[in-house]
Amino acid sequence: MLDQPIAEIQNLRVEFQTKDGPVVGVEDVSFSIRPGETVCIVGESGSGKSVSSLSLMRLVEYGGGEIAGGRLLFDRKEGGQTDLATTDQAEMRDIRGNEIGMIFQEPMTALNPVFTVGRQLTEGLRVHRGMGKAQARARALELLREVRIPEPERRLEQYPHELSGGMRQRVVIAMAMACRPRLLIADEPTTALDVTIQAEILALMDRLKRETGTAVMFITHDMAVVAQMADRVVVMFRGNKVEEGPVEQIFNAPQHPYTKALLAAVPKLGEMQGKAAPEPMRLLGVEGQKIAPIPGTDETLLSVRNLTTRFPVKGGLMRRTVANVHAVEDVSFTLNKGQTLSLVGESGCGKSTAGRSILRLVEPLRGKIDLDGTDVLALNASELRQARRDMQMIFQDPFASLNPQMQLIDQVAEPMRNYGIASGSEITDRVAQLFDRVELPRSFMRRYPHEMSGGQRQRIAIARALALRPKLIVADEAVSALDVSVQAQVVNLMMELQADLGLSYLFISHDMAVVERVSHQVGVMYLGRIVEIGPRARVFENPQHAYTKALMKAVPIADPTLRKSERDLNFKPIPSPIHGLDYDPQPSAYDEVEPGHFVLTTDSGY
C-alpha cells in the first residue's frame, strides 16, 4: 500500500534521569511520515523535537534518556512493521544508516576528523551492502556528484577540516543517502550555514527526495525553511504536539496561540517596504511595546576609509610568509549617530574581520578609522584602552564570551570596575538597572551562565556591552544562534535601546530579513570588498550588483507559495582569498547609481 506510513510515532514518552529525579523530554507525541513526504517538526529549543528523532534512531539512550512509553512503528525494507522501541541494539545497528539515515546539525562533529572523506563515505556501503573497495569508491564518487561537490576525486582523499562548512554538510548528506534509506531524518541541517549555501542544500535535499522517494523528517526552528520544504508540519511546544496540518494551512490559518506567536515573530523579507526608518516588530502577547520609527541623526560617528586587513600564510622550513589571506580589501563607509549599518555576506567574506579591525581586536594593515574625532589606528595601548569605553562588541556565541565561573552580576560589573567608573553599592545599583534594561529579573544576578537559556545569555552579553555607555556597538551575528521568538525579542530590545540611548550599531549578519528590519544603511560584502552600499530601501528594493541580486534570490521566504527551485539558484563557487606576496589588488572604485547608493565597478571576482 502506498499510503501506508513508513514511520509512525504513537504516544511517545521520553524521560531523562537527573539527580533531582526524572525530567520529561517528550510527554505524549504522535505523528506519522509517508513515503516521499517531508514532515517538518518545528518548535523552540527544548520543545522535544530533536529528542523525538533520536528516539526513532534509538540514539536517545546514549544521551541519558529512556523511552518510557509509546510505540515507534517502522515499515522495514523486507516488509513487515517493527516496533523500534523494543528492538535490540544489534538489530538497530542494521537499520541505522541502512534503512534510516540521519543528517546531524553540526557537520564537524558528525564527521570523524582522523579519517578521509572517502573512507567515511565507503564505510556504510561496505558494512551494510557488502561492497568491495573499488565498487564502494565508485558509489562514493557518484554520491559526491549527486550533492554537487566540485572535484569529487580530490575530495575523497581530503580530511573534514580541509572542507568548508557547506561542503562538510554536503558530505554528511551524501553519507546519509549512501544506502538509499527509506527514511531520512534531518536535524537542523542548515542552521549553521549561509543563506546561499542553505538555499542550495534545501534544493538538493528536495531533489534527492523526489528522485529516490525517501520520506524526510525535517527538524528546524526556521519558519522560512519550513515554508520551503514541508508537505506537513508538526508544531511542538514543551514536549507536546500542539498543532499538525498541511503546510499551507499552518501558515495561512494557524489555530494554536503558540503557532500564531511563532509565525508573528518571523521577520519577512519585504515587510519594511515603504518605511523610511527601521522600527521594532509587533510581537503577539507582549504588552506595552514601543513601535516607533528610529530615524537616528545626520551626525557622523564612525568614518572608515580604505581599511585593509590581511593575514599571513606561513610555510616552508623557516616558517616564512609565503602568501596572504586578503580578508578585508579597501573598505570605506560612514556610520551616523543613533543609526545602524549592516554588513551582510557569506562566511569568509570578511565582515567579522572588518568589525574586529575597527575595534583593533585584529590589527589592520592600513586605512583610517575615525570614531567621533578619535583616530583609532594612531592610538597607543593605553589610549586604545580608554577609547574602547566608547566601542563595545557583542559576539555570536554568548556562552563562549561569558566566563563560566563568574556570577552574572560580576560579569556585567567587570567593565565598570576595570575603568573605575563606579564602586561599592553604586555598581550593584547600576548592574540592577542594566538587568532591568535588558528585561531580565534582578534575581538572576547571582546565577551562572550555564543556568541561563541562549536568549538570556545573549541579553547578559548586551547588558555587559552597555555597562560603559558606549557610542558604538559592533554586533557580530548577535542573534543568528537564537530561536525565532527569542531572536525577535532580542532584536526589538536592541532597537529600543538604540532609540532610548542613541546607540550606533555596526550589525554583522547573514540573515537578510533581520538586516532589513534593523538597518538604516546596508553594505554587501564579497571576498573582502564592499560590492554595494547604500540606504536600506535602495539596496533591498533596487539591488544593482550581480552578487547582491544572487543573495536576495537565495533568501528563503516564510510563505509556502513562494518556493524556490534549484534552477533559481546558480551561484558561482567563491574564489580563494589567498594570493601570493606579489599580488597587488586594484583599489575599490564605485558608481553612484542613486543618491547615496554606490556599486563597485572594480572587478570583484563575481
Automatic annotation (TrEMBL):
Any Pfam family from its record, for instance, is: oligo_HPY
Query: What residues does the ABC transporter domain cover?
Result: 9-263, 302-552
Q: Which GO terms describe its molecular function?
A: ATP binding
Keyword Transport part of the UniProt annotation:
yes
Could you list this entry's UniProt keywords, alphabetically sorted: ATP-binding, Cell membrane, Membrane, Nucleotide-binding, Transport
- Tell me where on the tree of life, at the top rank, the source sits: Bacteria
In the bilayer, the protein is annotated as: Peripheral membrane protein
Please state where this protein is localized: Cell inner membrane
- Keyword DNA damage among UniProt keywords: no
Cited InterPro entries: AAA+_ATPase (IPR003593), ABC_Ni/Peptide_Import (IPR050388), ABC_transporter-like_ATP-bd (IPR003439), ABC_transporter-like_CS (IPR017871), Oligopep_ABC_C (IPR013563), P-loop_NTPase (IPR027417)
Q: Which PANTHER family match?
A: DIPEPTIDE TRANSPORT ATP-BINDING PROTEIN DPPD, OLIGOPEPTIDE TRANSPORT ATP-BINDING PROTEIN APPD
- Record-stated family: Belongs to the ABC transporter superfamily.
Put simply, this protein is called ABC transporter ATP-binding protein
Q: Which organism is it from?
A: Arenibacterium halophilum
Q: What is the lineage of its organism?
A: Bacteria, Pseudomonadati, Pseudomonadota, Alphaproteobacteria, Rhodobacterales
